[in-house]
TrEMBL record:
Protein name, as recorded: Integrase catalytic domain-containing protein
Biased composition (Basic and acidic residues): 746-762
Location of region: Disordered: 746-781
SUPFAM superfamilies cross-referenced by the UniProt entry: Ribonuclease H-like (SSF53098)
Length: 804
């Protein structure tokens, strides 16, 4: 559903608004969405499909905008919410005290049942920094952050402005809200009998885990219990437990009983644990006990008196005898630098100027250069040693990483984010998947002509479930990563499992940023998540399966190039292109076998196989994923638009190299500009044409050859049929070169015959068995025909035929 402008005009708060405020609200509802950028920070952006709004809501951060969108989607008091609001002019304060006008765009317009509000969401860390550095514009009033210029600008319009901190968007609650929202789409409904059994079980045990309650009810499907939680009949601590982990999610019918159970029986919050620095090592603890024993004996030695003074000082600070007796070995030794500050400062300056360059000089060479410069700069002072120089270089590595390696190098060198600030990872099958590409380290045979094999390295596209590690779908292609590969993995996934992932995380490749892919996911109500650009830490889920395929299967297969060092050191006769044997169908079969093995066994360090986790998750949460029907409608929806084609009412649609026909194309009044064409990404012999507002499947004469093929055979046919012509460029060039050579040989033979003198030429033999009459005869010699004419031949006797 979507909130219309007419509904907005009927809102109770609409009447008291000014004309400017009404215009602002109307533009907020009607403004088209824009693409959000990656910004100057490593944040994950994307688009969240909202059923309240009836559209995909772009977000720039999962912990901020996306979390707030999920909370508003779950809140029953929120009727609708919109982002991409029109900018308003605000006056902000400079550090020097002066003010300047600038534009400000809020994050959301929130339409509640009783009020209209403009909302801005920021991280708690960012808000604290703004209050500290820009106190003239940012303040805290009654525990709430206030953006004073923005509040004044919207107050002039008659609208309220609110700043939301991520501290109020608990990540556990956000993950639980997402699961409860998805459970509302479940086909299983909680009946009265299940409700009564749940009440009886909780009356007997007061507090039980969600898994134990489901077992007592005799059901592995958790959908009915999630509906009871959503309705409030069962109480769950949404901020300290995950419903998606039923073994550790405790439920009750009374919140006070649940809190008492947590305080008495459950482990304390890790945030309240003692710091690691307060827990002594075994060696320090043993030494403290030895000191206490020696003091208790009563021997008065200088060491004992020193220990007694130390314990007395510790007691004055509120420490116990044991903590006071702990030795402070970390403070022993001379901590003063052995070199003057000028020596260290010069070494740091050399590191910044010499090592932190785009040419990326080596550490060893940089230290050698530093020694020469140091001898000239401070000849009376000893330069720092190599270990000290490398230590200083390590300290400056993060600072200089951007100058040395660009944004990608800086992201790789930067420390990871705190675990407490990260979003909860997916814990259900089809909750989130990742899609990525990999050029297979194996040459595949694509053509065989004139006794020669032509090979190419295919692109392997995979759609992998993040929670379980299962590979949901895969595809091979000889073209660069494109919309075709994206469409094929989605088709394969839906055809096999009957559902698609709720969220797909991808990189910022052109195929994923295309209008086709984004609109396809939006129409399927799938959340699109874009990884930060130039950040090597993201996308490890897909990279792991690529590494497993490379190390555990491709290694040792004919035509592999997994060990690039060895490949460079072998002869041409032993290179992967020369030893390749596998066809496209062979490679598809082998990848299918490998993925089947991986699903049954997983990696060596996993305790449960991906297939087990996958089956268990779907049994517990059968509503997981975006369930859809694979049929003609989905095939047309996922087909790829074609702009270059020819239209002939007598022959059909021409897309090189095939003609496609359907009876609806026989209309002589049909023009190319009135026909939209989409090509089936999996079937090179089928296209779809929009003729007179109706999609019509058009087929080539070769379409019948795929009817009796297996799934992998059709896939191999599609991989070769939809591949670009460049895969056969080498074969075409060799064929044309051979044809040119044959023509040259024919020309040389013809030229050789022309260069022979007429008197030395051999007479050409007649095709007839008798010599020609005008054949040349040597002088004084009669031809055979002249001899025959000179002979006297008697006439043969003639008579009549007698009647029998």
């Amino acid at each position: 559903m979507s909130y219309s402008l007419e509904e907005l005009r009927g809102h109770p708060a609409w009447r008291g608004l000014s004309a400017e405020a009404r215009e602002f609200l109307a533009q907020s509802l009607l403004m088209p969405s824009r693409d959000v950028g990656s910004g100057g920070f490593a944040a994950v952006s994307g688009a969240f499909p909202s059923r309240k709004v009836g559209a995909s809501i772009p977000f720039e951060s999962r912990s901020a905008e996306l979390a707030l969108a999920v909370h508003m989607e779950f809140d029953a008091d929120v009727l609708a919410f919109y982002n991409q609001l029109p900018p308003v002019e605000v006056r902000r304060t400079r550090k020097g005290g002066g003010q300047y006008p600038t534009s400000y765009t809020a994050d959301f317009l929130v339409i509640r049942k009783d009020e209209l509000k403009v909302v801005q969401v920021k991280t708690e860390k960012e808000l604290r920094k703004l209050v500290e550095t820009r106190s003239a514009d940012w303040t805290v009033i009654e525990g709430c952050y206030v953006d004073t210029p923005a509040s004044e600008a919207f107050r002039a319009l008659g609208l309220a402005h609110e700043v939301v901190s991520t501290q109020n968007l608990d990540r556990y609650r956000t993950a639980n809200y997402r699961l409860l929202l998805r459970s509302r789409l479940a086909e299983t409904v909680c009946d009265d009998q299940t409700r009564a059994k749940a009440r009886a079980e909780l009356k007997a045990k007061i507090v039980v885990s969600l898994a134990e309650l489901a077992k007592a009810l005799g059901s592995k499907d958790l959908s009915p219990l999630l509906q009871l939680i959503d309705e409030g009949e069962l109480v769950v601590d949404l901020e300290r437990s995950l419903i998606s982990s039923p073994e550790t999610c405790w439920v009750s019918t009374d919140r006070q009983l649940l809190e008492t159970h947590r305080a008495e029986w459950l482990a304390p919050d890790p945030a309240g644990w003692a710091l690691a620095s307060e827990i002594p090592s075994e060696k320090r603890a043993r030494r403290a006990l030895e000191i206490i024993d020696k003091i208790s004996v009563g021997h008065m030695t200088p060491s004992v008196r020193r220990w007694q003074r130390k314990i007395q000082a510790g007691k004055a600070m509120g420490l116990s005898v044991f903590k006071s007796a702990l030795p402070n070995w970390q403070q022993c030794g001379n901590r003063k630098p052995k070199r003057p500050d000028v020596v260290k400062a010069f070494a740091e300056n050399v590191i910044r100027d010499r090592w932190g360059r785009a040419e990326r000089p080596a550490k060893r060479g940089t230290y050698g250069e530093y020694r020469l410069l140091a001898k000239a700069w401070h000849p009376g002072l000893k330069y720092v040693s190599k270990p000290t120089f490398l230590k200083l270089l390590k300290e400056l590595e993060v600072v200089l990483s951007r100058r040395r390696s660009g944004a990608r190098g800086e992201n790789a060198a930067s420390p990871p984010t705190a675990v407490a600030d990260r979003v909860i990872v997916a814990m259900r099958p089809f909750e989130q998947a990742t899609c990525d590409h990999y050029m297979v380290d194996l040459s595949c045979v694509v053509a065989e002509k004139d006794g020669k094999r032509y090979t190419k390295r295919p692109i392997f596209t995979v759609l992998r479930d993040i929670a379980t590690g299962m590979v949901l779908a895969f595809w091979l292609s000889f073209a660069k990563p494109s919309r075709v590969a994206c469409a094929c993995v989605l088709r394969s996934c839906l055809r096999r499992w009957g559902r698609l992932p709720e969220s797909i995380i991808v990189d910022r490749g052109a195929e994923f940023l295309s209008v086709y892919f984004r609109s396809l996911l939006a129409s399927l109500e799938i959340e699109l998540v874009l990884r930060p650009s130039a950040h090597p830490r993201y996308g490890s889920e897909a990279e792991r399966i690529f590494g497993q395929l490379k190390e555990r299967w491709l290694d040792g297969r004919p035509g592999n190039s997994t060990d690039i060092k060895e490949v460079r050191s072998v002869s041409g006769s032993h290179r992967p292109q020369a030893t390749a044997e596998l066809t496209v169908l062979d490679l598809l079969n082998e990848i299918d076998h490998f993925l089947g093995w991986f699903a049954r066994w997983g990696t060596n360090h996993s305790h449960r196989a991906p297939q087990y986790l996958f089956d268990e998750g779907l049994t517990r949460f059968p509503f997981s994923g975006r369930q859809a029907v694979y049929g003609p409608e989905f095939e047309i929806l996922s087909a790829v638009d074609v702009s270059s084609f020819a239209l002939d009412p007598r022959r059909g649609i021409k897309i090189h190299p095939y003609w496609y026909w359907a009876p609806e194309l026989a209309d002589l009044n049909l023009k190319k500009g009135k026909v939209l064409v989409r090509k089936d990404p999996e079937n090179p012999y089928t296209v779809y044409a929009l003729v007179h507002e109706k999609w019509v499947p058009c087929q080539s004469s070769r379409a019948q050859r795929t009817v009796s093929q297996t799934t992998l055979q059709r896939m191999a046919e599609a991989v070769l049929g939809t591949a670009p012509n460049s895969q056969l460029d080498d074969a075409i060039e060799d064929a044309e070169s051979d044809l040119v050579i044959q023509k040259r040989c024919a020309d040389e033979r013809s030229k050789a015959r022309k260069d022979v003198p007429p008197e030395t030429r051999k007479p050409a033999k007649s095709k007839s068995s008798q010599p020609a009459e005008d054949a040349p005869v040597s002088k004084g010699e009669k031809s055979i025909w002249a001899q025959l004419r000179s002979l006297n031949i008697d006439a043969a006797p003639s008579g009549t035929w007698s009647k029998s």
